Input
Amino acid sequence: MNLEALLADRLAGAFAAVAGHEVDPAVRRSPHADFASGAALQLGRDLGRSPRDLAAAVAERADLAGLAVAEVAGPGFINLTIDDALIAGEMVRPPELPRAAKPQTVVIDYSAPNVAKEMQVHHLRSTVIGDAVARLMVQLGHDVRRANHLGDWGTPFGMLVEHLLDGGELSMDDLTGFYQAARARFDSDDDFKRRARLRVVALQGGDEETLATWRRLVEVSERHFMDVYERLGVTLTEADFVGESFYNDDLHRVVEELDAKGLLRVSDGALCAFPEGFTGRDGEPVPLIVRKSDGGFGYAATDLAAVRHRVGVLGADRLLYVVGAPQRTHFQMVFAVARAAGWLPDDMPAEHVAFGSILGADGKMLKSRSGETVRLSELLDEAVRRAARLTGGPAREKERSFPSLTSGDASAAARAVGVGAIKYADLSSDRRSDYIFDWDRMLAITGNTGPYLQMAHARTRSILAKAGDARPGPVVLTEPRERALALELLAFEPTLELVADTLEMHRLAGYLFGLASAFSAFFEACPVLRADPAVRESRLSLCQRTAETLRQGLDLLGIGTPERL
Ligand code: ARG
Output
């Protein structure tokens, strides 16, 4: 139920009648009532009439029966207080999640690590944010296609294949070691360098032995990525790997079609597109290189082929790219060229869902203690280790209010809490900003953190478990904190609508934190199990609905909700 929308709907008619034209009632949550409309203030200025008189006329005319009571306040606000019976009636139903009016085929490009390289922290952001977006789109009823645009092609593969053929050691646990060894030889051994270059030609020419070796590289890397995905609890599967190499056969067509449309020009020996509106600092148009001067195709050509495929073959209605902010211009140019080529219709949305960097405590790019880039798998191990101390150890703070761990649950809980803490830290900050990776903060059991929300959820579950034969029953709102919690619960649906529009997952995180806080406040003031039967049943319903909402909300973020911690 979207109270804001219902109120706006009922007020709109009254505003139109009073003003003589359409007016957005601008209904918002208010500290002075449940909701308020401030639209009469501006309308008064526009019409040169008293805002209070206008507000009174609107309040008088609006049919709010069964929904709310309106009252004029201050200089011309309409304060709106929701009918208790309406709120109470909603509480005994499961949370309502919005569904898209028109389901679409949505292609989401995310994760996209590179073969023969360990996943790194920017891949973590893409994976975590992309997966949350995918979960949300599925929930809304869309047909979601996950596109894991694996970096599995290009000149470095000459060197990598050559190194593997020479007996280089490849294990899924040390892709970086393999890459660095190949690189070191390439930089120091001229004969190896020469062979590596020939190997690129053989690879592009479709030589069988070369391709077989390249496939081994890809397979071992994919196994490593799948391992990380499983530990992260993301919904990507093997079937979602659609690497850059997938588009090889299309690249010549891409050039042909662009050329036929007159969109290509030779510049420094390379075939380039110059989409309108992209100029460098010197005012010169910036090229998007489609075919390099050596005849090879690069990152941009593959992305153009991918747009063409996703729309033309997969039948996409909407394209999303969850990729770091530095690639903004790249995507804008790719979209512009794809539109000019007619592959991306003008009215079809293609969006770069951009994100910032993860920083270390020093405010610079996150690095390991030895100064190298941080490996994602090590980060996950560390998170679970730290979370085990939190969930298993003698955390006195926690023992007061939570049932202790049974040993079987312990490791599962530590995994959910550790991994959840990392994911939540990422998803709870505005994706466009950088954020500082801070173990203590993300694992704190108070504040806007994963563990805090998981504990709030476990607390609701434990109350329900302890209720024994007592069942959730009809809701009667008497205490202010019951009412505040109930109103917060009803804000789930509009929050999801907002998140669906903006793809700003931190708004969902912020909502869940507010809900958990409202629940804490309620629980402090309103005993549940010790209350008289009717009150107990009513409060159990509030607990139940809170449990469900926290579970569904965290699930959309890809965060687990163990029954106990
Ligand atoms: N593999 C790239 C990287 O590691 C990301 C690819 C993003 N997706 C795309 N369609 N270009 O930075």
In short: The pocket of arginine is lined by residues 109, 112, 114, 149, 151, 303, 306, 321, 323 (CB under 6 Å). The two ends are 32 Å apart (CA to CA).
